[in-house]
Design brief:
Layout (H helix, E strand, L loop, with lengths): L1 H10 L4 E3 L4 E5 L3 E7 L4 E6 L2 E4 L2 E3 L1 E4 L6 E7 L3 E6 L8 E2 L5 E4 L3 E3 L2 E9 L2 E11 L4 E4 L1 E5 L5 E6 L1 E6 L2 E8 L5 E8 L12 E2 L4 E7 L7 E6 L5 E5 L9 E6 L6 E6 L7 E5 L4 E8 L8 E10 L11 E2 L4 E5 L11 E7 L5 E6 L9 E7 L5 E4 L5 E2 L3 E8 L5 E7 L5 E9 L6 H33 L1
Parallel strand pairs: 1-3, 10-13, 21-23, 30-32
Antiparallel strand pairs: 2-9, 3-8, 4-7, 4-9, 5-6, 5-8, 11-20, 12-13, 13-19, 14-15, 14-18, 14-20, 16-17, 16-19, 22-29, 23-28, 24-27, 24-29, 25-26, 25-28, 31-39, 32-38, 33-37, 33-39, 34-35, 34-38, 36-37
Protein name: Peptidase S1 domain-containing protein
Keywords: Membrane, Signal, Transmembrane, Transmembrane helix
Organism: Entamoeba dispar (strain ATCC PRA-260 / SAW760)
Length: 466
């Protein structure tokens, strides 16, 4: 039967030409039909049936025309439906609410990706965030987000995040290149976007890592402002997968445009500047690079502090605090063991659980955490191949006691960036075990007395009735 269908599809014999879309058909019998399409791309959806195209059957497929037309066959049975439409038509688009998450298995295949079309109804600037989770690998990756100019013309293809200016409604496709992935999508109203001049530069925190969007109009620049810290070695870069066009960076120390530094293409098509900071405001300008062919899209902006080199020995460990974020690429070989390590000390003020991780996307080199007691240098805990998060990140959780300091060593496998986060959760209220046992026994006795009285009353009622 499939060979026969393939023969029909190949020669186009007796194929019904689809002259307009959307096209709907319902069948209650077993059989097959051949169709010819001249518009491209076309989304074909079969319910309780099979779409036979190029040697294989599909329930949902996007067909791109290679020549003047494409043929496919529909193998149907009782209560079968066929829907032929443009990929972004409403009948197969999932509505997406603002500030709410949506997670599902891919509903279709489009542009070589497995994912879902989403319709967003909103006026204003919207940020769309897409994530793909591969259950077999327990790995999360940024999903690909495709936006459209009209019904089917692709406007942009971005990874991870995209910022859109929407007038009433827009359609996006979010997907990944593996069919077994689970696609998660989140949208939110975007109210903070880099300004287009020094006077209205967006003020951001330091350190920070954000994804923003550069439009292709006006001065083609995005301005930010942050307050530096005296004596810090600060790095500003756009080195990340979310940077989808050739970027350049300039840094000024005032609106008078006193240039601190500029860079284009320090990390591939992306840029990076490191400078010695003062206690003053700095202005960052993101634009396209000199060799750019695309002038708008999303980019990731990282601003972080490079640790001083003095903590590359255990006797020179520096203090670290809960909820602190540290980014570093200044890691030197230790004199004694030739490992690339940095050391921290931590003094717990309460009993609780300490969580250390390097899971952030900016981490781009292998690393491990090792924890020792400060007094005896006894090994308390360390990461291994099971404590993995993201492509390079590691995490470690251990219980610490009040006023008992510890040493945290972080080793890396080579040069690169590591983002370290430290969080702490205080122990909950503890109860006296003996008190809980006595209280529990008291409750049990009360329940037993009530049951005995109820039974006696029931027995007396039976005797009375007799």
């Amino acid at each position: 039967m499939l060979v026969f269908l393939f023969f029909i599809e190949t020669i186009g014999f007796n194929c019904q030409v689809i002259s307009s879309v959307p096209f709907y058909l319902k069948e209650k019998t077993v059989g097959s039909k051949c169709f010819q399409i001249k518009e491209s791309p076309i989304l074909v959806i079969a319910k309780n049936s099979c779409i036979y195209f190029r040697d294989s059957c599909h329930s949902v497929i996007t067909i791109h025309r290679d020549g003047d037309y494409e043929n496919f066959s529909w193998y149907h049975r009782n209560d079968s439906f066929l829907i032929i439409q443009r990929p972004t038509d409403n009948s197969y688009v999932t509505p997406l609410s603002i500030s709410k998450t949506h997670s599902s298995n891919p509903l279709t295949q489009f542009n070589g990706l497995y994912g879902t079309f989403y319709k967003i109804k909103q006026n204003g600037v919207i940020r769309v965030i897409g994530v793909s989770f591969i259950p077999s690998d327990s790995v999360r990756k940024p999903a690909t987000i495709i936006t459209f100019q009209n019904h089917f013309d692709i406007d942009e293809i971005q990874v991870g995040e995209v910022v859109l200016t929407i007038n009433k409604e827009a359609t996006v496709f979010v997907g990944y290149n593996k069919s077994e992935s689970v696609i998660g999508v989140y949208t939110k109203s975007e109210t903070v976007i880099g300004g287009d001049s020094c006077k209205n530069a967006t003020e951001i925190e330091f350190p920070t890592s954000i994804v923003d969007y550069k439009r292709n109009f006006g001065k083609n620049e995005v301005w930010y402002k942050f307050n530096g810290i005296e004596g810090r070695n600060i790095t500003v870069d756009t080195c990340a997968n979310e940077s989808q066009f050739d970027t350049s960076i300039k840094i000024f120390d005032s609106c008078k445009e006193e240039l601190i530094g500029s860079n284009d293409n320090a990390c591939g098509a992306q840029s990076k500047i490191t400078f010695l900071s003062k206690n003053t405001d700095y202005f960052i300008v993101i634009s396209h690079g000199i060799n750019a062919t695309d002038f708008d899209g999303t980019f990731r902006l990282n601003i972080y502090d490079n640790l001083p080199l003095i903590n590359s020995r255990i006797d020179q460990a520096i203090p670290i605090q809960p909820f602190q974020v540290i980014r570093t690429n200044n890691i030197l070989p230790d004199d004694s063991n030739k490992q690339r390590s940095i050391y921290f000390t931590y003094l717990p003020l309460e009993n609780g659980n300490l969580l250390i991780n390097s899971c952030d996307k900016i981490t781009n080199v292998g690393n491990d955490f090792i924890v020792y007691s400060n007094g005896s240098s006894t090994l308390l805990n360390k990461t291994d191949n099971t404590n993995v998060c993201g492509e390079f990140g590691k995490y470690l959780q251990l219980h610490v006691s009040s006023s008992e300091p510890i040493i945290i060593e972080m080793k890396t496998t080579g040069d690169g960036y590591v983002h370290i986060e430290v969080t702490f959760q205080q122990d909950g209220i503890s109860y006296d075990i003996e008190y809980l046992v006595k209280w529990g026994l008291t409750v049990c006795v009360i329940i037993l007395v009530v049951l005995i009285r109820h039974y006696n009353c029931y027995e007396n009622k039976i005797k009375y009735d007799m």
